[in-house]
Amino acid sequence: MNQLSLSSTYSTKVYINLDHQQDYIHWDSEEVAKNKRTIREIIKFLVQSKSQEALFYCMAVVKKVNAENGWHYVSCTDCHKKAKTIGSKIWCEGCKKEFSSPTRRYRLELHVKDESGSTIFVVFDKEAERIVRIPTTQVYTTEIKDEDDEEDVVPKPIKILLGKTYMFQIKINPNNIFTTKQNFTAIHVFEDHEYKQLQHEQEEKNQILPLK
Ligand SMILES: [Zn+2]
C-alpha cells in the first residue's frame, strides 16, 4: 500500500511520501462535499456561530505569501511549539528544556482568494513542507547565503506557491480571536491535482455500482 490507495467504502486515503517518511491523510469524499465552503461562507460562519468548532474544506488560489511575521519559527524539538532563543541556546518554556541547535518549522501566512472573497490561511510545518517540497532548514540555509535577496523576505522556493490552487482543510476554533488580521489555520493542504484525481476516482466508483 504505497502512494495511493482506495479503501472499500467512501473513504480514500492519500499516501504521501516525503523524505522516505510515509504519512497519510484521511480523505473522505462525502465529508469534503458536505463541508466544502467558500471563503465568504467560512467568514460568515465564524461571525454567526462564535462558539462552535468546525472543519471546512475550501478551494482557493494563493495570491501572496505574507512575510511580516516571517515564514518560519524556531520550535521545540520535542513539542513543536514556538521556543525562545536566549543567546545561542533554545529554550522551551512548556517542556522546561534547553536545546543547543534550533529546529525550524514553517509557518506560512498565505493570502488566498476564491470567487467569493479573500482571507489568510496559515499553514504549518509538514503541511507547508509538503507543498513547498523543500525542508525548512534547507530553505533557511540557502536563503541566508543568498545576500542579494535581503530585501525580499519571502524565499524563492516558497514563491512556487503563488498562483497555485489548493484544497485547504480549515479548522475553525472557538477561540479564533484575531488580534491583528483575520486568519484561519489550514490543518491539511491538498494539491489541486490530488483533489481532482480523487474526485475522478470517486465518480468512476459511483458509476460502477451494479444497480440494474
Ligand atoms: Zn517543548
TrEMBL record:
<keyword id="KW-0238">DNA-binding</keyword>
<dbReference type="InterPro" id="IPR047192">
    <property type="entry name" value="Euk_RPA1_DBD_C"/>
</dbReference>
<dbReference type="InterPro" id="IPR013955">
    <property type="entry name" value="Rep_factor-A_C"/>
</dbReference>
<keyword id="KW-0863">Zinc-finger</keyword>
<dbReference type="Pfam" id="PF08646">
    <property type="entry name" value="Rep_fac-A_C"/>
</dbReference>
<dbReference type="GO" id="GO:0008270">
    <property type="term" value="F:zinc ion binding"/>
</dbReference>
<keyword id="KW-0479">Metal-binding</keyword>
<comment type="similarity">
    <text>Belongs to the replication factor A protein 1 family.</text>
</comment>
<protein>
    <recommendedName>
        <fullName>Replication factor A C-terminal domain-containing protein</fullName>
    </recommendedName>
</protein>
<dbReference type="InterPro" id="IPR012340">
    <property type="entry name" value="NA-bd_OB-fold"/>
</dbReference>
<keyword id="KW-0862">Zinc</keyword>
<dbReference type="GO" id="GO:0003677">
    <property type="term" value="F:DNA binding"/>
</dbReference>
<feature type="domain" description="Replication factor A C-terminal">
    <location>
        <begin position="56"/>
        <end position="185"/>
    </location>
</feature>
